[in-house]
From TrEMBL:
InterPro entries found in the cross-reference section: Ig-like_fold, PKD_dom, PKD_dom_sf, Sortilin_C, Sortilin_N, VPS10, VPS10-sortilin
SMART domains in alphabetical order: VPS10 (SM00602)
Residue intervals of the PKD domain: 371-415
UniProt similarity note: Belongs to the VPS10-related sortilin family. SORCS subfamily.
One of the record's GO cellular component terms: postsynaptic density membrane
Alphabetically ordered keywords of this record: Glycoprotein, Membrane, Repeat, Signal, Transmembrane, Transmembrane helix
Annotated membrane topology: Single-pass type I membrane protein
Main location: membrane
Name of the molecule in the record: Sortilin related VPS10 domain containing receptor 3
Length: 725
């Protein structure tokens, strides 16, 4: 229903309803139990017959009340004028905003007459016994119409000598009032004008008993409406007298015998075409006794209930009213487990409250057992202790199968709920290679803290993809097919928490790389945080470009976590084209040679701060081979691998020797199960030797008593640390 209007008489409503894309007006006399279309007037304003056959044609009304207190709105009525309705509408198959007129019903909507062919504002004066109408128009007017016979005839009066643009009218307070104030302006530029109209002079006298008649409220001839027979006292049409302050409606009301029309379908029932109320498909009548115990009684519905505010007595009342019946014994059925917030996710260490529901069964004689799935279970002799919920705190993260079991002497039932217990994730770090080979698998890992956060969902976004790859694992393999800088984003979802990290990978057909080391003074100033490593990588790259003149787009520098400080230098081709592959490889070799010579001659250095000059060295003593998509290992590469391993052992011995010197402080960081935030190029180990950080130092040796260490950024375990099962 789009609009609904109360007529002022109990149980009578008008409503606009949309049916098959058409808006039609309906009326009810029993508070919505039955609705019917409005019968159009038999004749129009000129007395010509109106051809309008139900249900194809009827009267339709605009039911909007006025938001402006100075206009009457499209429909109006008064409780002091019972049965009198005035509304704007049209005759036809549906409600329309064209060909509208004003219609009046003197008998509560049973019959209608047209009183105006255009839109008018209509007000009730003198307890509703007098009607005042004013044309609703944008042009200036000077006349109004008054009716004493419920709109059958109208007298024309002039309320101003000069036409007035009427902006509104206000009836003075008091329902017996006979004074009206009209306000507007004579022109668009003139000031406001107020005109007070006093209608007392047009009433010849006060009404006496001979000026009244009785009116019987009815519904198409049926005298009982809402279980009552009502008789009202109204002024006779045409009696030009004033009702006055002492007017009384003198309503006579007596109850009617209850009939079928006084009852509507009860909750869970619906009316069929034979006018019978039957259970809806979703409703089980036996559920009315679900809270009932053996030996007690419950109110069993017959499928009917008396309409609210209906005052009928006797008749069918005894047949349709609900009956008291003994509670039947039932086995548990329809057992359910839900959480109080309706969610299947809770946080570790917080209260999870479970509600147990049962469609059928003796609540007082049914044993309940609830297994929380973490080795803890509770039992209750009946439902009374669990009505407010059962609380439980999970001490570890994971997915738990919560099982409820209900049993009485007649049977049993089981329900299961899978609850996700999560520990809020605080940080995610995306571990990706700086450089990858086109059309070759790379491994990408998301490192989440805390590590025992329970079940997590990973959303992986690659490049400009519009749909993510979704996994339950923290690692994924991926092949990049487009050269250039590619973006990787991971989003980690835990309950209602979502965090993400984004990294860039340079994808090329081939590249070369060198491991870099630094003068020891850099270690003294290394806080071992990602931001510092990124800044140092930019400084090293800028120093390499300044010394060698190589374009910066051909150089990438990745500084590794931990001590001693080390990095990897990636040398990229200037242009990757398959037609010039051979010449591009030769160009790349020349770039590598220039960089290698500059590093070997200690030409690459930078000032960390005033007085602190850091020299960049190359760890490998020979040029590294080309890294590309080929799968075979050359003999030269194997020799290179052996030579680099030898060099690594030599560096390790030198470093160990240096650690024994007591006046040299070595700063180290004890890693707390942390992944490197930047790893070397993918497939580097297949084609080129590489010295990893583990070859420089053993974590256990960093704890030697003679070593003067400084532990930076170590994360201490908190009391609320997460654990997973």
């Amino acid at each position: 229903y789009l609009d609904i209007f109360s007529s002022g008489i109990k149980g009578i409503f008008l409503a606009n309803r949309k049916i098959d894309d058409q808006i039609k007006t309906f009326i009810t006399y029993n508070k919505g139990r039955d609705w019917r279309l409005l019968q159009a007037p038999d004749t129009d304003l000129r007395g010509n017959p109106v051809v309008c056959q139900l249900p194809f044609c009827s009267l339709h009304l605009h039911l909007q009340l006025s938001e402006n207190p100075y206009t009457s709105g499209s429909i109006s009525s008064k409780e002091t004028a019972p049965g009198l309705l005035v509304a704007t509408g049209n005759i036809g198959s549906e409600l329309s905003y064209t060909d509208v007129g004003v219609f009046i019903s003197p008998d509560g909507g049973n019959s209608w007459r047209q009183i105006f062919e255009e839109e008018y504002n209509v007000w009730f004066l003198d307890w509703g016994g007098t009607l005042v109408a004013m044309k609703h128009t944008s042009v200036p007017i000077r006349h109004m119409w008054v009716s004493f016979d419920e709109g059958r005839s109208w007298s024309k009066y002039s309320f101003t000598s000069t036409p007035l643009f009427v902006d509104g009218s206000l009836v003075d307070p008091g329902i017996e009032t006979q004074i009206m104030t009209v306000f507007g302006h004579f022109s668009l530029r003139s000031e406001w004008q107020l005109v007070k109209v006093d209608y007392r002079s047009i009433f010849s006298r006060r009404c006496n008993k001979d000026d009244y008649q009785t009116w019987h409220l009815h519904n198409q001839g049926e005298p009982c409406v809402m279980g009552e027979r009502k008789i009202y006292k109204k002024r006779k049409p045409g009696a030009q007298c004033s009702l006055g302050r002492d007017y009384s409606q003198t309503v006579v009301s007596e109850p009617c015998v209850c009939g079928q029309g006084d009852f509507e379908c009860d909750y869970g029932y619906e009316r069929r075409s034979n006018n019978q109320c039957v259970p809806a498909f979703w409703f089980s009548p036996s559920s009315l006794s679900k809270d009932c115990s053996i030996g007690q009684s419950y109110l069993n519905s017959t499928g009917y209930r008396r309409i609210v505010s209906n005052n009928c007595t006797d008749g069918l009342r005894e047949k349709y009213m609900a009956k008291m019946e003994k509670c039947p014994g039932k086995a548990p059925r329809g057992l359910q487990i839900i959480t109080t917030d309706g969610k299947l996710v809770t946080e570790q260490g917080h209260n999870a409250t479970f509600i147990i529901l049962m469609e059928e069964g003796d609540l007082q004689r049914t044993n309940i057992q609830l297994d929380f799935g973490d080795g803890i279970a509770v039992s209750y002799a009946n439902f009374s202790p669990v009505e407010d919920g059962i609380r439980h705190v999970y001490k570890s993260a994971g997915i738990f199968q919560v099982t409820a079991y209900a049993e009485n002497s007649l049977g049993s039932d089981t329900a299961v709920l899978f609850l996700h217990v999560v520990c809020p994730v605080e940080h995610v770090h995306l571990s990706v290679p700086f450089v990858a080979i086109r059309n070759k698998d790379i491994n990408i890992t998301a490192v989440v803290w805390p590590s025992q956060a329970g079940t997590l969902t990973y959303f992986w976004w690659f490049g400009n993809s519009t749909k993510p790859l979704i996994t339950l694992e923290s690692s994924i393999s991926y092949i990049f097919t487009v050269e250039g800088m590619n973006t990787v984003t991971v989003q980690v979802a835990a309950g209602n928490i979502l965090i993400q990290d984004t990294k860039e990978i340079a994808v090329h057909e081939y590249f070369q790389s060198q491991l870099l080391s630094f003068s020891p003074n850099l270690d003294y100033h290394n806080p071992d945080i990602p931001e510092w490593r990124q800044d140092i990588g930019k400084v090293i790259k800028r120093a390499l470009v300044q010394v060698t003149g190589i374009p910066d787009e051909q150089i990438l520098v990745a500084v590794f976590p931990g001590l001693p400080t080390s990095a990897e230098l990636f040398i990229l081709p200037h242009k990757n084209t398959t037609e010039r592959r051979k010449s591009s490889e030769d160009d790349l070799e020349q770039v590598v040679e220039v960089l290698f010579n500059a590093l070997n001659q200690n030409l690459v250095q930078f000032e960390l701060k005033p007085g602190v000059e850091v020299i960049v060295y190359v760890t490998q003593l020979t040029l590294a081979p080309l890294v590309d998509s080929s799968t075979g290992h050359s003999s030269s590469a194997m020799l290179m691998l052996l030579s680099v391993v030898f060099v690594g052992l030599a560096v390790f011995l030198i470093y160990k020797f240096k650690r024994k010197i007591p006046w040299i402080n070595i700063y180290a960081q004890v890693q707390h199960d942390k992944e490197q935030e930047m790893i070397g190029s993918v497939s580097q180990s297949e084609n080129a030797p590489k010295i990893t950080l583990s070859e420089f130092t053993d974590p256990e040796e960093l704890m030697d008593k003679e070593l003067d260490t400084r532990v930076m950024g170590e994360r201490q375990p908190s009391a609320g640390a997460c654990f997973a099962v």
